[in-house]
Amino acid sequence: MRHVLGHFATGVTVVTGLAGDGDPVGFACQSFTSVSLDPPLVLFCADHAGRSWPRMRDTGTFCVNILRHAQQELVDRFGSRTGSRFEGLDWHLSAHGAPALPDVLARVHCAVENVHVSGDHDVVVGRVVDLELVQPGRPLLFYRGRFAVTERLRSSAQPEVTGGWDDFWG
Fold this sequence. Notes:
Keywords: Oxidoreductase. This protein has helices spanning 2-5, 53-56, 72-79, 165-169, and strands at residues 10-11, 13-18, 24-29, 33-37, 40-47, 61-66, 92-93, 99-100, 106-118, 121-133, 140-143, 146-149.
């Protein structure tokens, strides 16, 4: 399954939140996507046995930090099963109650809307409460088991959307 699904490129994020005791927690996540524009909903999938999600699940808020191409170190830090993920990191607590990582492309601040148990993971649906474009740049991608970076995108005419977003994307 990993071999075939590895051919689908994904963006790379770090999902952060606070544990019940107030400690910052977070984990690297590739399974982030938009669900709905009205209401604004996103989702990610988190391992039941992970170090972070079980600790932040009941707090009700999280932040999805969308990583730039030069932030592989954050993936290494937040994807590791050992070490202190926030030690020595210049982060701040957002106005929405979740850790915000420095110099990311964007942040999506959410309140937990629903959690669906699916196999060995939770599918977490979040209601978007705020969006931040933090810094311009290219996204960090994951493709076929490795990190990848997009080349500069060529300027091209955008397809005309005559009806609405739903008409364009189906």
